[in-house]
Amino acid sequence: MKKNQFDTLEQQTPIKIQSDRQNLSVTVEKMKLKKGNFTVDFQVNHGDMRNWNFSFFKDFARNDITLVKESEKAIYKEPMKHSIKEIDEKELRFRSTFDIGTVSDFSKDNYVIRVNLDSLSANIPLEF
Questions:
Q1: For the chain: N or C, fewer Cβ within 10 A?
Q2: What is the number of helices (H) and of strands (E) in the chain?
Q3: Structural domain contains residue 127
C-alpha cells in the first residue's frame, strides 16, 4: 500500500482513494473554499464499519485526512488546524473544516489533501 496519497484541490469530485491490496477507501465527495475555511466532505470505506467502533473512524478522519502544502507534502509537520463533524455516522461520512484564515500563502495550487490509509490497514488482518 502507498503510505500517503495526495489529491490536488482543483480535482473534480468525487475523488476515490483506494488501497491497492485491501478493501479500504476514502471518497472525497465535495471540497469548498469559503471565508477563511476550506471544507472537505468525505466517506470512509463506503460506509462499511467492519464491526469496528465508530470512534476509530472519527480518529482516522481527524488524524489521517489533512491539508498540507504541496512543497512540503513528504515532510511530516503538525497538521493544519481543523475540526471534524459527523455528517452521517451510519454511512461514515465526515466533514473536515480547515482554518486557512491565518495561512498567508493559501491557494488551491499550492496545497493538497493528504490521505493516509495505513492507519486503517494496520488494524485489519490480511487475508491470504
A1: C
A2: 2, 8
A3: no
